[in-house]
Amino acid sequence: MLAPESQSEYAEGAGHAAEAAFPPFDPTYFASQLFWLAISFIVLYVLLSRFVLPRIGGAIEERRDRIADDLDTAAQLKAQADETVRAYEKSLADARAKAHSVAAEAKAAADAEVAEAIRKADAELEAKLAESEDRIRASRDAALGEVRTIAADTAVVAVEHLAGLEVSEDDAAKAVDAVKE
Amino acid sequence: MADATNPIKQFEIHPIADFSIGGWNLSFTNSSFFMVTSVVLVAGLLSLAMSKRALVPGRSQSVAELLYEFVAGMIRSTAGDAGLKFFPFVFTLFAFILMGNMLGMFPYFPAPGFHGFTFTSHIIVTFALALVVMAIVIGYGVFKHGLKFFSLFFPSGVPWPLYILLTPIEIISFLSRPVTLGVRLFANMLAGHILLKVFAGFIIMLGSVGALGVLGAVAPLIMVVALTALEFLVAFLQAYVFAVLTCIYLSDALHPGH
Fold first, then answer.
1. Is beta strand B28-29 parallel, antiparallel or unpaired with respect to B15-17?
2. What are phi and psi for residue A165, nearest 5 degrees?
3. I want to staple B213 with a disulfide (CB 3.0 to 4.6 A). Which of A178, B113, B145, B206 is the partner?
4. Shortest CA distance from B15: residue in chain A
5. How far is A30 from chain B (nearest CA, A)?
6. Tens-digit pLDDT profile for residues A158-170
7. Distance CA A30, CA B127 (A)
8. A–B CB contacts, 8 A cutoff, strictly below
Protein backbone atom coordinates (compact mmCIF):
# COMPACT_ATOMS: atom_id res chain seq x y z
CA MET A 1 0.00 0.00 0.00
CA LEU A 2 2.79 2.33 -0.81
CA ALA A 3 1.34 5.51 -2.14
CA PRO A 4 3.17 7.46 -4.82
CA GLU A 5 3.57 10.44 -2.56
CA SER A 6 4.39 8.24 0.41
CA GLN A 7 7.92 9.46 0.46
CA SER A 8 6.91 12.99 1.35
CA GLU A 9 3.90 11.79 3.37
CA TYR A 10 6.03 9.53 5.39
CA ALA A 11 8.58 12.22 6.06
CA GLU A 12 5.80 14.57 7.06
CA GLY A 13 4.14 11.86 9.21
CA ALA A 14 7.37 11.17 10.94
CA GLY A 15 7.76 14.90 11.44
CA HIS A 16 4.71 15.36 13.64
CA ALA A 17 4.48 11.77 14.78
CA ALA A 18 5.75 12.91 18.13
CA GLU A 19 3.05 15.54 18.75
CA ALA A 20 0.06 13.84 16.98
CA ALA A 21 -0.24 10.32 18.23
CA PHE A 22 -3.36 8.59 17.03
CA PRO A 23 -5.06 9.89 13.86
CA PRO A 24 -8.69 9.52 15.05
CA PHE A 25 -7.91 11.74 18.04
CA ASP A 26 -5.74 14.20 16.12
CA PRO A 27 -7.60 17.51 16.25
CA THR A 28 -5.77 18.98 13.24
CA TYR A 29 -8.58 18.07 10.86
CA PHE A 30 -11.54 18.13 13.27
CA ALA A 31 -12.87 21.36 11.80
CA SER A 32 -12.38 20.10 8.25
CA GLN A 33 -14.13 16.82 9.02
CA LEU A 34 -17.05 18.55 10.71
CA PHE A 35 -17.33 21.02 7.85
CA TRP A 36 -17.36 18.37 5.14
CA LEU A 37 -19.57 16.09 7.20
CA ALA A 38 -22.12 18.88 7.51
CA ILE A 39 -21.98 19.63 3.79
CA SER A 40 -22.17 15.96 2.78
CA PHE A 41 -24.95 15.13 5.20
CA ILE A 42 -27.06 18.14 4.33
CA VAL A 43 -26.62 17.61 0.60
CA LEU A 44 -27.51 13.93 0.95
CA TYR A 45 -30.51 14.78 3.13
CA VAL A 46 -31.80 17.29 0.60
CA LEU A 47 -31.23 14.98 -2.34
CA LEU A 48 -32.91 12.03 -0.65
CA SER A 49 -35.82 13.83 0.98
CA ARG A 50 -36.58 16.00 -2.07
CA PHE A 51 -36.02 13.66 -4.98
CA VAL A 52 -35.05 10.09 -4.27
CA LEU A 53 -37.27 9.02 -1.38
CA PRO A 54 -40.51 10.50 -2.79
CA ARG A 55 -39.71 8.63 -5.98
CA ILE A 56 -39.28 5.30 -4.20
CA GLY A 57 -42.28 5.92 -1.95
CA GLY A 58 -44.32 6.98 -4.96
CA ALA A 59 -43.43 3.84 -6.86
CA ILE A 60 -44.39 1.66 -3.90
CA GLU A 61 -47.60 3.61 -3.35
CA GLU A 62 -48.45 3.44 -7.04
CA ARG A 63 -47.97 -0.30 -7.06
CA ARG A 64 -50.12 -0.70 -3.95
CA ASP A 65 -52.87 1.42 -5.51
CA ARG A 66 -52.61 -0.44 -8.77
CA ILE A 67 -52.87 -3.79 -7.05
CA ALA A 68 -55.87 -2.61 -5.02
CA ASP A 69 -57.47 -1.29 -8.23
CA ASP A 70 -56.79 -4.51 -10.04
CA LEU A 71 -58.29 -6.50 -7.18
CA ASP A 72 -61.37 -4.28 -7.29
CA THR A 73 -61.69 -4.75 -11.02
CA ALA A 74 -61.25 -8.48 -10.62
CA ALA A 75 -63.96 -8.60 -7.97
CA GLN A 76 -66.25 -6.57 -10.22
CA LEU A 77 -65.60 -8.83 -13.17
CA LYS A 78 -66.20 -11.86 -11.01
CA ALA A 79 -69.55 -10.43 -9.89
CA GLN A 80 -70.41 -9.82 -13.53
CA ALA A 81 -69.41 -13.34 -14.45
CA ASP A 82 -71.49 -14.72 -11.60
CA GLU A 83 -74.44 -12.68 -12.81
CA THR A 84 -74.00 -13.99 -16.33
CA VAL A 85 -73.77 -17.55 -15.10
CA ARG A 86 -76.91 -17.07 -13.07
CA ALA A 87 -78.77 -15.64 -16.07
CA TYR A 88 -77.52 -18.45 -18.25
CA GLU A 89 -78.61 -21.07 -15.77
CA LYS A 90 -81.99 -19.44 -15.44
CA SER A 91 -82.52 -19.38 -19.22
CA LEU A 92 -81.32 -22.95 -19.38
CA ALA A 93 -83.86 -23.99 -16.75
CA ASP A 94 -86.58 -22.05 -18.59
CA ALA A 95 -85.71 -23.69 -21.87
CA ARG A 96 -85.72 -27.07 -20.21
CA ALA A 97 -89.14 -26.46 -18.68
CA LYS A 98 -90.44 -25.23 -22.01
CA ALA A 99 -89.04 -28.22 -23.79
CA HIS A 100 -90.73 -30.43 -21.24
CA SER A 101 -94.11 -28.81 -21.80
CA VAL A 102 -93.72 -28.94 -25.57
CA ALA A 103 -92.81 -32.59 -25.36
CA ALA A 104 -95.76 -33.30 -23.11
CA GLU A 105 -98.10 -31.49 -25.48
CA ALA A 106 -96.72 -33.30 -28.47
CA LYS A 107 -97.08 -36.59 -26.64
CA ALA A 108 -100.66 -35.81 -25.69
CA ALA A 109 -101.47 -34.84 -29.28
CA ALA A 110 -99.83 -37.97 -30.62
CA ASP A 111 -101.67 -40.08 -28.06
CA ALA A 112 -104.96 -38.52 -29.08
CA GLU A 113 -104.25 -39.12 -32.77
CA VAL A 114 -103.29 -42.71 -32.12
CA ALA A 115 -106.42 -43.27 -30.07
CA GLU A 116 -108.50 -41.74 -32.85
CA ALA A 117 -106.85 -43.92 -35.46
CA ILE A 118 -107.37 -47.01 -33.35
CA ARG A 119 -110.99 -46.13 -32.82
CA LYS A 120 -111.53 -45.56 -36.54
CA ALA A 121 -109.80 -48.80 -37.42
CA ASP A 122 -111.88 -50.65 -34.85
CA ALA A 123 -115.06 -49.21 -36.29
CA GLU A 124 -114.05 -50.15 -39.82
CA LEU A 125 -113.16 -53.64 -38.76
CA GLU A 126 -116.44 -53.92 -36.94
CA ALA A 127 -118.32 -52.84 -40.04
CA LYS A 128 -116.41 -55.25 -42.24
CA LEU A 129 -117.02 -58.07 -39.76
CA ALA A 130 -120.71 -57.39 -39.69
CA GLU A 131 -120.84 -57.29 -43.49
CA SER A 132 -118.93 -60.53 -43.77
CA GLU A 133 -121.21 -62.24 -41.32
CA ASP A 134 -124.22 -61.08 -43.33
CA ARG A 135 -122.63 -62.41 -46.46
CA ILE A 136 -121.86 -65.75 -44.83
CA ARG A 137 -125.40 -66.05 -43.55
CA ALA A 138 -126.81 -65.26 -46.98
CA SER A 139 -124.54 -67.83 -48.62
CA ARG A 140 -125.51 -70.44 -46.05
CA ASP A 141 -129.17 -69.73 -46.52
CA ALA A 142 -128.69 -69.95 -50.23
CA ALA A 143 -126.75 -73.15 -49.86
CA LEU A 144 -129.38 -74.61 -47.54
CA GLY A 145 -132.12 -73.66 -50.06
CA GLU A 146 -130.28 -75.47 -52.76
CA VAL A 147 -129.84 -78.52 -50.55
CA ARG A 148 -133.65 -78.69 -50.35
CA THR A 149 -134.09 -78.54 -54.10
CA ILE A 150 -131.33 -81.10 -54.64
CA ALA A 151 -132.89 -83.34 -52.00
CA ALA A 152 -136.35 -83.03 -53.69
CA ASP A 153 -134.84 -83.72 -57.12
CA THR A 154 -132.98 -86.69 -55.74
CA ALA A 155 -136.16 -87.93 -54.08
CA VAL A 156 -138.15 -87.63 -57.35
CA VAL A 157 -135.53 -89.55 -59.25
CA ALA A 158 -135.18 -92.16 -56.49
CA VAL A 159 -138.96 -92.71 -56.26
CA GLU A 160 -139.25 -93.01 -60.03
CA HIS A 161 -136.52 -95.59 -60.17
CA LEU A 162 -137.54 -97.58 -57.14
CA ALA A 163 -141.27 -97.39 -57.27
CA GLY A 164 -141.87 -96.30 -60.83
CA LEU A 165 -144.06 -93.58 -59.56
CA GLU A 166 -144.31 -90.22 -61.03
CA VAL A 167 -144.05 -87.70 -58.22
CA SER A 168 -144.34 -84.05 -58.80
CA GLU A 169 -141.59 -81.87 -57.69
CA ASP A 170 -143.82 -79.92 -55.37
CA ASP A 171 -144.83 -83.04 -53.53
CA ALA A 172 -141.27 -84.13 -53.28
CA ALA A 173 -140.35 -80.80 -51.83
CA LYS A 174 -143.18 -81.11 -49.32
CA ALA A 175 -142.00 -84.55 -48.34
CA VAL A 176 -138.42 -83.33 -47.92
CA ASP A 177 -139.67 -80.53 -45.76
CA ALA A 178 -141.70 -83.00 -43.70
CA VAL A 179 -138.67 -85.24 -43.23
CA LYS A 180 -136.54 -82.29 -42.30
CA GLU A 181 -138.92 -81.29 -39.63
CA MET B 1 7.69 -1.45 4.63
CA ALA B 2 6.89 0.21 7.88
CA ASP B 3 3.90 1.82 6.21
CA ALA B 4 2.59 -1.45 4.87
CA THR B 5 2.37 -3.07 8.28
CA ASN B 6 1.41 -0.03 10.30
CA PRO B 7 -2.21 -0.67 11.40
CA ILE B 8 -2.75 3.01 12.19
CA LYS B 9 -1.77 4.26 8.74
CA GLN B 10 -5.28 3.63 7.38
CA PHE B 11 -6.76 6.23 9.71
CA GLU B 12 -4.45 9.03 8.63
CA ILE B 13 -5.93 12.07 7.02
CA HIS B 14 -4.24 13.71 4.08
CA PRO B 15 -5.23 17.09 2.76
CA ILE B 16 -5.98 17.16 -0.95
CA ALA B 17 -6.95 20.78 -1.41
CA ASP B 18 -5.99 23.18 1.31
CA PHE B 19 -8.36 25.93 2.19
CA SER B 20 -9.36 27.71 5.32
CA ILE B 21 -12.00 30.17 6.43
CA GLY B 22 -11.39 32.54 9.33
CA GLY B 23 -8.38 30.65 10.53
CA TRP B 24 -10.20 27.31 10.47
CA ASN B 25 -8.50 24.59 8.49
CA LEU B 26 -11.31 23.29 6.28
CA SER B 27 -9.13 21.46 3.77
CA PHE B 28 -10.68 18.91 1.48
CA THR B 29 -9.11 15.68 2.73
CA ASN B 30 -9.34 11.99 1.94
CA SER B 31 -11.99 11.86 4.68
CA SER B 32 -13.99 14.51 2.84
CA PHE B 33 -13.43 12.59 -0.38
CA PHE B 34 -15.04 9.48 1.10
CA MET B 35 -17.94 11.47 2.53
CA VAL B 36 -18.62 13.07 -0.84
CA THR B 37 -18.19 9.69 -2.54
CA SER B 38 -20.75 8.22 -0.15
CA VAL B 39 -23.21 10.99 -0.94
CA VAL B 40 -22.70 10.58 -4.68
CA LEU B 41 -22.99 6.79 -4.50
CA VAL B 42 -26.07 6.73 -2.28
CA ALA B 43 -27.94 9.38 -4.23
CA GLY B 44 -26.63 8.18 -7.58
CA LEU B 45 -27.31 4.48 -7.07
CA LEU B 46 -30.77 5.06 -5.65
CA SER B 47 -31.64 7.44 -8.49
CA LEU B 48 -30.30 4.97 -11.02
CA ALA B 49 -32.26 2.16 -9.40
CA MET B 50 -35.45 4.22 -9.57
CA SER B 51 -34.81 5.65 -13.04
CA LYS B 52 -37.28 3.30 -14.71
CA ARG B 53 -39.76 3.36 -11.85
CA ALA B 54 -41.28 0.19 -13.16
CA LEU B 55 -44.51 -1.24 -11.82
CA VAL B 56 -42.81 -4.61 -11.66
CA PRO B 57 -39.41 -3.70 -10.19
CA GLY B 58 -36.15 -4.96 -11.57
CA ARG B 59 -33.27 -6.08 -9.41
CA SER B 60 -31.85 -2.68 -8.52
CA GLN B 61 -35.27 -1.16 -7.96
CA SER B 62 -36.15 -4.06 -5.68
CA VAL B 63 -33.07 -3.33 -3.60
CA ALA B 64 -33.94 0.36 -3.37
CA GLU B 65 -37.51 -0.45 -2.35
CA LEU B 66 -36.29 -3.07 0.08
CA LEU B 67 -34.05 -0.48 1.72
CA TYR B 68 -36.94 1.98 1.85
CA GLU B 69 -39.32 -0.53 3.40
CA PHE B 70 -36.59 -1.72 5.76
CA VAL B 71 -36.01 1.75 7.21
CA ALA B 72 -39.72 2.55 7.23
CA GLY B 73 -40.42 -0.71 9.08
CA MET B 74 -37.65 0.06 11.55
CA ILE B 75 -39.18 3.44 12.36
CA ARG B 76 -42.70 2.09 12.54
CA SER B 77 -41.74 -0.69 14.95
CA THR B 78 -39.76 1.56 17.32
CA ALA B 79 -41.39 4.98 17.17
CA GLY B 80 -44.80 4.19 15.68
CA ASP B 81 -46.39 5.80 12.63
CA ALA B 82 -45.77 9.25 14.07
CA GLY B 83 -42.05 8.59 13.72
CA LEU B 84 -42.38 8.51 9.94
CA LYS B 85 -42.00 12.29 9.80
CA PHE B 86 -38.34 11.63 10.59
CA PHE B 87 -38.12 9.06 7.84
CA PRO B 88 -35.90 11.11 5.48
CA PHE B 89 -33.53 11.93 8.33
CA VAL B 90 -33.22 8.34 9.56
CA PHE B 91 -32.89 7.05 6.01
CA THR B 92 -30.16 9.57 5.24
CA LEU B 93 -28.34 8.69 8.45
CA PHE B 94 -28.59 4.96 7.79
CA ALA B 95 -27.60 5.17 4.14
CA PHE B 96 -24.73 7.57 4.80
CA ILE B 97 -23.23 5.48 7.61
CA LEU B 98 -23.81 2.22 5.77
CA MET B 99 -22.14 3.52 2.62
CA GLY B 100 -19.26 4.96 4.65
CA ASN B 101 -18.73 1.66 6.45
CA MET B 102 -18.94 -0.33 3.23
CA LEU B 103 -16.53 1.97 1.39
CA GLY B 104 -14.18 1.44 4.32
CA MET B 105 -14.17 -2.27 3.52
CA PHE B 106 -12.07 -1.63 0.39
CA PRO B 107 -8.54 -2.52 1.53
CA TYR B 108 -7.22 -0.45 -1.34
CA PHE B 109 -9.13 2.37 -2.91
CA PRO B 110 -8.09 4.61 -5.76
CA ALA B 111 -8.47 7.59 -3.51
CA PRO B 112 -6.22 10.49 -2.65
CA GLY B 113 -3.59 9.19 -0.23
CA PHE B 114 -4.01 5.78 -1.86
CA HIS B 115 -5.37 3.84 1.05
CA GLY B 116 -8.80 2.79 2.07
CA PHE B 117 -10.46 5.05 4.60
CA THR B 118 -13.48 4.76 6.84
CA PHE B 119 -14.78 8.14 7.88
CA THR B 120 -16.93 6.48 10.56
CA SER B 121 -13.71 5.36 12.27
CA HIS B 122 -13.10 8.94 13.39
CA ILE B 123 -14.79 9.83 16.64
CA ILE B 124 -15.37 13.42 15.65
CA VAL B 125 -17.60 12.26 12.79
CA THR B 126 -19.62 9.72 14.74
CA PHE B 127 -19.92 11.99 17.74
CA ALA B 128 -21.11 14.84 15.54
CA LEU B 129 -23.76 12.56 14.01
CA ALA B 130 -24.83 11.46 17.50
CA LEU B 131 -25.06 15.08 18.61
CA VAL B 132 -27.22 15.91 15.60
CA VAL B 133 -29.55 13.09 16.63
CA MET B 134 -29.72 14.33 20.23
CA ALA B 135 -30.22 17.92 19.08
CA ILE B 136 -33.17 16.81 16.98
CA VAL B 137 -34.59 14.73 19.86
CA ILE B 138 -34.36 17.60 22.35
CA GLY B 139 -35.36 20.27 19.84
CA TYR B 140 -38.38 18.41 18.58
CA GLY B 141 -39.34 17.20 22.08
CA VAL B 142 -39.31 20.68 23.57
CA PHE B 143 -40.95 22.22 20.52
CA LYS B 144 -43.74 19.64 20.51
CA HIS B 145 -44.34 19.03 24.22
CA GLY B 146 -42.77 22.05 25.94
CA LEU B 147 -41.80 21.34 29.53
CA LYS B 148 -43.73 18.09 29.39
CA PHE B 149 -40.80 16.71 27.42
CA PHE B 150 -38.82 16.60 30.66
CA SER B 151 -41.34 14.17 32.12
CA LEU B 152 -38.95 11.79 30.38
CA PHE B 153 -36.90 12.02 33.55
CA PHE B 154 -39.86 11.18 35.76
CA PRO B 155 -41.08 7.73 34.75
CA SER B 156 -44.78 7.33 35.46
CA GLY B 157 -46.20 4.70 37.79
CA VAL B 158 -43.48 5.11 40.39
CA PRO B 159 -44.01 6.22 44.01
CA TRP B 160 -42.62 9.76 44.26
CA PRO B 161 -39.80 9.13 46.79
CA LEU B 162 -38.17 6.93 44.17
CA TYR B 163 -37.75 9.98 41.94
CA ILE B 164 -34.87 11.03 44.16
CA LEU B 165 -33.06 7.96 42.95
CA LEU B 166 -34.56 7.53 39.50
CA THR B 167 -34.39 11.04 38.10
CA PRO B 168 -30.59 11.42 38.35
CA ILE B 169 -30.20 8.00 36.75
CA GLU B 170 -32.53 8.97 33.94
CA ILE B 171 -30.70 12.26 33.41
CA ILE B 172 -27.31 10.57 33.36
CA SER B 173 -28.53 7.91 30.96
CA PHE B 174 -29.99 10.60 28.72
CA LEU B 175 -26.81 12.64 28.74
CA SER B 176 -24.67 9.61 28.01
CA ARG B 177 -26.69 8.74 24.94
CA PRO B 178 -24.77 10.87 22.44
CA VAL B 179 -21.51 9.55 23.84
CA THR B 180 -22.48 5.90 23.65
CA LEU B 181 -24.13 6.36 20.29
CA GLY B 182 -21.03 7.99 18.81
CA VAL B 183 -18.45 5.84 20.54
CA ARG B 184 -20.19 2.57 19.66
CA LEU B 185 -19.91 3.17 15.93
CA PHE B 186 -16.45 4.70 16.13
CA ALA B 187 -14.99 1.96 18.34
CA ASN B 188 -16.45 -0.85 16.26
CA MET B 189 -15.07 0.49 13.03
CA LEU B 190 -11.73 1.40 14.55
CA ALA B 191 -11.18 -1.92 16.30
CA GLY B 192 -12.31 -3.98 13.34
CA HIS B 193 -10.07 -2.19 10.88
CA ILE B 194 -7.05 -2.31 13.21
CA LEU B 195 -7.60 -6.03 13.68
CA LEU B 196 -7.82 -6.59 9.94
CA LYS B 197 -4.68 -4.61 9.35
CA VAL B 198 -2.75 -6.34 12.14
CA PHE B 199 -3.45 -9.75 10.68
CA ALA B 200 -2.73 -8.49 7.18
CA GLY B 201 0.56 -7.17 8.54
CA PHE B 202 1.38 -10.63 9.87
CA ILE B 203 1.04 -12.01 6.35
CA ILE B 204 3.55 -9.49 4.99
CA MET B 205 5.96 -9.95 7.86
CA LEU B 206 5.85 -13.75 7.62
CA GLY B 207 6.00 -13.63 3.84
CA SER B 208 9.23 -11.69 3.91
CA VAL B 209 10.91 -14.30 6.12
CA GLY B 210 11.19 -17.05 3.53
CA ALA B 211 9.51 -20.20 2.25
CA LEU B 212 8.55 -21.40 5.72
CA GLY B 213 7.20 -17.94 6.48
CA VAL B 214 5.01 -18.00 3.36
CA LEU B 215 3.62 -21.34 4.51
CA GLY B 216 3.02 -19.92 7.97
CA ALA B 217 1.30 -16.87 6.49
CA VAL B 218 -1.65 -19.08 5.51
CA ALA B 219 -2.97 -18.95 9.08
CA PRO B 220 -3.28 -15.13 9.28
CA LEU B 221 -4.60 -15.13 5.71
CA ILE B 222 -7.48 -17.39 6.75
CA MET B 223 -7.99 -15.12 9.71
CA VAL B 224 -8.12 -12.04 7.49
CA VAL B 225 -10.67 -13.67 5.19
CA ALA B 226 -12.84 -14.60 8.16
CA LEU B 227 -12.44 -11.16 9.71
CA THR B 228 -13.36 -9.49 6.44
CA ALA B 229 -16.64 -11.37 6.42
CA LEU B 230 -17.19 -10.40 10.05
CA GLU B 231 -16.37 -6.77 9.27
CA PHE B 232 -18.94 -6.68 6.49
CA LEU B 233 -21.47 -7.85 9.05
CA VAL B 234 -20.28 -5.25 11.55
CA ALA B 235 -20.36 -2.54 8.88
CA PHE B 236 -24.02 -3.25 8.23
CA LEU B 237 -24.91 -3.99 11.83
CA GLN B 238 -23.43 -0.77 13.21
CA ALA B 239 -25.24 1.34 10.64
CA TYR B 240 -28.43 -0.50 11.59
CA VAL B 241 -27.79 -0.11 15.33
CA PHE B 242 -27.13 3.59 14.92
CA ALA B 243 -30.37 4.01 12.99
CA VAL B 244 -32.42 1.90 15.41
CA LEU B 245 -31.13 3.78 18.44
CA THR B 246 -31.88 7.03 16.65
CA CYS B 247 -35.44 5.79 16.17
CA ILE B 248 -35.73 4.83 19.83
CA TYR B 249 -34.48 8.24 20.96
CA LEU B 250 -36.81 9.95 18.52
CA SER B 251 -39.63 7.89 19.99
CA ASP B 252 -38.84 9.58 23.33
CA ALA B 253 -39.24 12.94 21.68
CA LEU B 254 -42.55 11.86 20.14
CA HIS B 255 -44.06 10.25 23.23
CA PRO B 256 -42.15 11.45 26.30
CA GLY B 257 -44.83 10.48 28.83
CA HIS B 258 -44.62 6.69 28.77
1. antiparallel
2. -90, 145
3. B206
4. A29
5. 7
6. 888 887 777 777 8
7. 11
8. 149
Q: What is the ipTM of this complex?
A: 0.90
pLDDT digits (tens, 9 = 90+) for A85-138: 999 999 999 999 999 999 999 999 999 999 999 999 999 999 999 999 999 999
Q: How far is A75 from chain B (nearest CA, A)?
A: 21
A70 touches chain B (CB under 8 A): no
Residue A162 contacts B, CB cutoff 8 Å: no
> Which amino acid makes up residue B94?
F
Q: Is A26 on the interface with B (CB under 8 A)?
A: yes
What's the CA angle centered on A122, arms A120 and A126, to 5 degrees? 115
Q: Does A10 touch chain B (CB under 8 A)?
A: yes
Residue B170 C-alpha, separation from nearest chain A C-alpha, in angstroms: 29
Give chain B positions within 8 Å (CB) of A31. Answer: 24-26
Please give, rounded to a whole number of angstroms, the shortest distance from the CA of A47 to a CA of chain B.
7
Q: What is the 3-state secondary structure (H, E, C) of chain A?
A: CCCCCHHHHHHHHHHCCCCCCCHHHCHHHHHHHHHHHHHHHHHHHHHHHHHHHHHHHHHHHHHHHHHHHHHHHHHHHHHHHHHHHHHHHHHHHHHHHHHHHHHHHHHHHHHHHHHHHHHHHHHHHHHHHHHHHHHHHHHHHHHHHHHHHHHHHHHHHHHHHHHCCCCCHHHHHHHHHHHHC
Q: How far is CA B64 from CA A177, B57, B67, in A?
A: 140, 10, 5
Chain A CB within 8 Å of residue B237 CB: no
